[in-house]
Design a protein that fits this description.
Blueprint lengths: L2 H22 L11 H7 L6 H11 L2 H5 L18 E3 L6 H8 L7 E5 L2 H13 L7 E3 L11 H5 L10 E3 H5 L3 H4 L2 E6 L5 E7 L11 E4 L3
Parallel strand pairs: 1-2, 2-3
Antiparallel strand pairs: 4-6, 5-6, 5-7
The protein binds S-adenosylmethionine.
Length: 217
């Protein structure tokens, strides 16, 4: 992809985001009146929409939908469907709304958020964008089971698990020296280990205190 093609593509995404958010009166920084201390405790700092769109273009099949094999824009209004887009810590839904703005089918959008006050904002925003309410869950991501999202169970979620994390099941398959590369993830409210492991050397976000890392081995 040439620099010019890249710029055209980014300009197109920015234009789509600007149009969509002004039409839909979306409030990117709706923190449900939470105070800074509470926001710091739960890492409540939301991602600007244009950045969300750029992240999605890097991580998902957005490029495929917009660009031909040579990197030229093949259509300005593709519909992105048949693939779930799930944000496990969705906040007020900026990432998911940006997905819809650039063409994601709302029927394939899923969300989870821990804070009930932010969850209300999330439900209000996403249902206005036609995301089914039963796709939007309030709870701790580390306690989420597959039953919560039956449809996602059959499909591979795109943004469901951080790339540097693995499940207990996958951890058990590693040999002893590989296991040493991982920490156990603990829930900081209970202090108990969850069923996930995180790769050492991958920095934990300071702002997100929803989990902490305990050394294993
Ligand atoms: C940094 S914000 C990200 C919001 C959104 N993904 C974005 O990019 O704008 C993180 C959100 O995760 C929520 N959160 C923190 N710990 C969580 C947990 N264990 N389970 C689910 N949500 C959690 C916080 O309340 C906050 O709204």
């Amino acid at each position: 992809m040439t620099d010019l093609q890249k710029r055209d593509f980014e300009n197109l995404l920015t234009k789509k985001i600007d149009n969509f958010f002004s039409e839909n009166n979306w409030n990117v920084n709706n923190y449900a009146s939470n105070q800074l201390k509470e926001r710091k405790d739960l890492g409540q700092f939301f991602t600007p929409s244009v950045l969300c769109a750029k992240m999605l273009a890097k991580l998902t099949k957005v490029k495929e939908a917009y660009l031909d094999e040579e990197g030229n824009v093949k259509g300005e209004n593709p519909k992105i469907t048949d693939e779930p887009l799930f944000d496990p810590t969705a906040g007020c839904g900026n990432l998911l709304a940006a997905g819809i703005a650039i063409g994601w089918d709302p029927e394939w959008i899923y969300a989870n958020e821990l804070d009930p006050k932010i969850y209300e904002v999330l439900v209000d925003g996403l249902t206005k964008l036609s995301v089914p309410k039963d796709h939007i869950r309030c709870g701790d991501i580390f306690k989420m089971t597959k039953e919560h999202f039956k449809r996602m169970d059959e499909q591979k979620p795109i943004c469901g698990i951080l790339p540097d994390e693995i499940s207990k099941e996958d951890y058990e398959k590693l040999n002893e020296s590989e296991k040493k590369l991982y920490f156990t993830i603990c829930d900081n409210r209970t202090g108990k280990p969850t069923d996930k492991y995180k790769k050492k050397g991958v920095k934990n976000k300071k702002s997100n205190k929803s989990f902490s890392l305990n050394k294993k081995n």
